[in-house]
User: Fold these one by one.
Assistant:
Number 1:
Amino acid sequence: MHSDGGKTMVGWGTAVRNIGALFREGIEPYTPTPSVDVYDHPHRRLRCYRRTTPAVGNPILLVPPLAVTISCYDLRPDQSLVEFLLGLGRAVYVIDYGEITYADRDLGFEEWVDDIVPDAIRRVSAEHAYAPVEVIGWSFGGTISLLTTAADPELPVASVTAVGTPFDQRRNGPMSLARSLGRLAPTELVTTPVRLLGGIPKQAVRIGFRAQSLDRELTKPLYIARHANDPESLARMQAVDRFMDTMPGYPARFYSQVYRQLIIRNEMWTGTVHLNAQHAVDLTAITVPVLLIGGNRDTLASAASVAAGVDVLTGAPVTFVEVGGSHLGIIAGPDARTTSWAAIADFLADTTVDTDELLAPSATAH
């Protein structure tokens, strides 16, 4: 009897300490995978993650979506795509866009598709004896990656992986409804307030991302109570909260293009995306292998809307894989290692250049 009581007291003590830590210093401090800057310019900081051994195979460039930080690829230990890819022996790079402010209101898809991402691809390739680059993007990061590759087929791209990247908004749940309502109202009704604000403020982005997982937010107190003695579960919850609390905003022009071209006109599905009146990108120009990954619980990019890309990218060999998980879960969830990441590993094994080892000239410095 005394022993059971002692265990209960220890259990309560652990729970109290865990909950106390959760609301003070945190269960687990954020410790990103070490990296060094290849270059650092506004909205285009290129980072190379440190390796302790020489890199093998094609280098990898991670392209984030706007309105999130690069931690989407490096959420926490065991929930880090970066860590997983390094474990495959690859050299891994990421573009960090930094903060988006009112001063960036005129930035649109063109800046990323024609400048920021192509420049990063060329630089990563040059670091690795001009080997082709495996490009991986989540959400709009996948959209940007695909548009970049289509806009310039001469870029040294080995493959493109797009995770949670929708093609057909008609098959995309809430977005399908938004598209239907949007077609009944003037586009300016949505884009004008955004333009006046200079974009979607970071606070609105954070609220919006939490709203798409409202059940999680409403049940969080119960989740904490049930897992008070489980620091791993609390650390996972805290990592997601930290990720959402650091989201930056969208530039006004970029958001207006997303709303008009991608949602209302559904141009990713038609196969030609008009960045502006003079610049249209034909997605059938992509000829390198493409991997599309959709989540069966993704409310922002349904698996069906992602799978539609198979019918759009007719110039490329395309593989579609459906996995379990939410929009964030398929790229950074606790099950991603055996689902999305495993699919990526298999795909990369098939697309890598035929060489035993590629070592960047600066790899020892990284």
Note: The first strand starts at residue 35 and ends at 39.
Number 2:
Amino acid sequence: MVRTGSASVATAGPTLAVVAREAGVSVPTASKVVNGREDVAPETRRRVTEALDRLGYVRRPRFDAARPPRLVDLVVHSLESSWSGAVLHGVEEAAHDAGLDVVVSAALSRTRAARPRRGWLDKLTVRGSAGVLFNLAELTESQFAWLDQHRIPFVMIDPVLEPPPGVVSVGAANWQGGVTATEHLLSLGHRHIAVVAGRRRTMCSSARVAGYRSALASAGVVHRPEYIRYGGFDEAVARHRMRELLDLPEPPTAVFVCSDRMALGVYEALAERGLRVPHDISVVGFDDLPESRWAAPALTTVRQPLAEMAATALRLLVRMMDGERPEGTRTELSTRLVERASTAPPRTRT
């Protein structure tokens, strides 16, 4: 079976009649809720919506074969971050070259799992989009199956979790980035190097931590389990994890932080203790977002090419929309170290 970028085809979902029966309403009433009609009582709408969620119902697409769509969807976690800005820039340029229009949706839930909200797939069918780009998303098994069943090509940009076999994705060389960051600190003379990572099970976190451990092993430095701290890609969590590291009997002299945003939280934790970067402790981030240049001192970081990743994903999507099958399912773009002012040789400990 040729995939369009998702998991294997599953059986068709529930019909509208099943949803109506589950909610205790008529099929026309359930149809009104699905189509966003206003002439439905709030309590009835609630029952139908809960049944839709519970049963995993999505409206079937209504593509017009006589008018092939030239529209693609970009689904992002948030429109407020500089990360999303870089992704938007890359997609916009590549879409312009391909003669495509792009619909941008902040359609991912704000829960720990970045999954498309209820109703997003319904809107996709109404627009008749030819393909989808997902950025930092976690799709459910039923959502993968729905996209595959209806032959909607899609590409994932930096997927949070390992996608199912056959899913096309674009990301950065996270393992090598972890190696590069750690080797930089080792070259300065640091041997007590900690890492503050995102969630343990995320693809990028596990790869960056693996790179960190590999670099230590190559240098003959035994990694210390207490120096590895997982949390989330959030400033507050990173601040808390840095406090834990500082409370150790032998705190680190340097820390590799798995995102620039998290590094800002680490800066805050160090400032609370009256510690200076890099005089007392060196810090390396990951991403090379604008925030890394604005930090004081400017943050040494590993650059991942976000705009290029997004543009590559769009070009792959165009090929899939034209019926081509990519040679491989995973494309990784190289990372590189950007040295600034947040790293220095360690102070001699008394």
Note: The chain has a mean pLDDT of 86.
Number 3:
Amino acid sequence: MPELPEVEALKDFLTENLVGHEIVRVLPVAISVLKTYEPPVSALEGHEVTAVHRHGKFLDLETADGPHLVTHLARAGWLHWKDELPSGMPRPGKGPLALRVALETGAGFDLTEAGTQKRLAVYLVQDPGQVPGVARLGPDPLADDFDERRFTALLKDERRQLKGALRDQSLVAGVGNAYSDEILHAARMSPFKLASSLTPEETTRLYEALRTTLTDAVERSRGLAAGRLKAEKKSGLRVHGRTGEPCPVCGDTVREVSFSDSSLQYCPTCQTGGKPLADRRLSRLLK
């Protein structure tokens, strides 16, 4: 799933390639991707893109005197830029293509989604705050005003485990499964530690790991073309998706805890005092 760093990089890429250009055609190939119906997607046609924004993991294309095109790429969605879009009409139901946006130059982008779980979402709204997922977002962890005091206040009464708390978009916007693993590894904390149990020193450590991990990932992705962002994300991860490999910090074997629809990775030496976590739902540290 694209998370804050990849969506931030996509925002920068689209700002460079879209702003100042006119949208001449919007083709919804998979109708299920559209989560709003008024105004219709054709309302974008004839409008110039004036800005591209990021709200957590949402991309927001703003147009002059027109609606916003807001997209959430979900788990298996992606944006593919093309300097020259294929001619002709794409065939519905054939392949992963969900939506195509064409510019007056002949360039544009495709939104695609792999797999059978169709969660890619596209909204056409006058204000991005009308999108329910955007409306409920918590603060952006890379915002200038997101200081340690604010982070401490968020966690003060938070009785969930750190892994779940970091992934809650209404608590902190933009962090998903992969970067929550990376943040907790950098902070040297168990994913199952209760957020409300953190000492002041641990809160400082987690805050610094959150900001540094995301900032570093954004910098690695900056300036890359859209097609290279997935590979860059994978290459920069230290524990997520690296079950069985040596931890780059201590050399211990990276372990995994599997759930019904996801998994987490961690280093026992760095994060859990050398104790492996039980690999079952609602796991606890093995005694």
Note: Strands lie at 23-28, 49-55, 58-63, 68-72, 77-82, 97-103, 108-113, 121-125, 255-258, 263-266.
